[in-house]
Protein: GNAT family N-acetyltransferase
Organism: Ferranicluibacter rubi
Amino acid sequence: MSGAKSPDRKSQASGSLPPCPVIRTPRLTLRPHLLSDAEAVTASLTDFGVARMLLRVPQPYHLGDAREWLETEANAGTAWNAAITETDDAHIGVVSIEKLRNGWHLGYWLNRQAWGRGIMSEAAWALVAAFFRQRPDSTVLSGVFADNTASLKVQAKLGFAISGIADVYVPARGATVNRIETRLTRDAFAPATE
Ligand SMILES: CC(C)(COP(=O)(O)OP(=O)(O)OC[C@H]1O[C@@H](n2cnc3c(N)ncnc32)[C@H](O)[C@@H]1OP(=O)(O)O)[C@@H](O)C(=O)NCCC(=O)NCCS
């Protein structure tokens, strides 16, 4: 796997990240987003099976929401929002690491057509590996809703440990659900096939 090889001292000192790298894995290319990804992002996030597992997706979701996100946030300096693509460069999902109030957070989703082939395990591992090369002393936070077994498995394989549980409001469900909170240090990060 490749991409974001050496720590960027300026970014480390400022607490930001260098621009989202292009990362190649055996089956995938992770790359910065393009405005032309708007239709694919919309098609994925209008699927309730995807949106119901996410904390911050506007409901209902429209093409304008995707365009706004692509224009303002997708390539912002405080985050790596990597588009997940296969050989044809078609956008099939997102894996991101962003700085929030209490630290760096991993998030991700895949178009339903791409589920069940180990894609997210491969994509998330590659982005986290690149992140730890930049910020080896940081901890990565994440979490899954209590009914998201697939996502909890993805995180367990990376080395995430459960750190707590919280009630959160999920706009897509219009309900409060239990969220299992998780965290990953570089020491616990599972060695994979880099
Ligand atoms: C969660 C998600 C990213 C998983 O992506 P994926 O590429 O299908 O995941 P992987 O194939 O890498 O791994 C999933 C693991 O969970 C298992 N799994 C899948 N569905 C499952 C289910 N309903 N119950 C139990 N295990 C399940 C798979 O067998 C696999 O385990 P294995 O590696 O031991 O075989 C994808 O389902 C998705 O985008 N869901 C909607 C959005 C979402 O949930 N985002 C994450 C929010 S925390």
User: Anything to note?
Assistant: The longest helix spans residues 119-134. The helical segments are 9-14, 38-45, 48-51, 63-72, 119-134, 149-158. The pocket of coenzyme A is lined by residues 50, 53-54, 108-110, 115-121, 144, 148-151, 153-154 (CB under 6 Å). The beta strands are 23-24, 29-31, 79-85, 91-100, 103-110, 140-145, 161-170, 175-184.
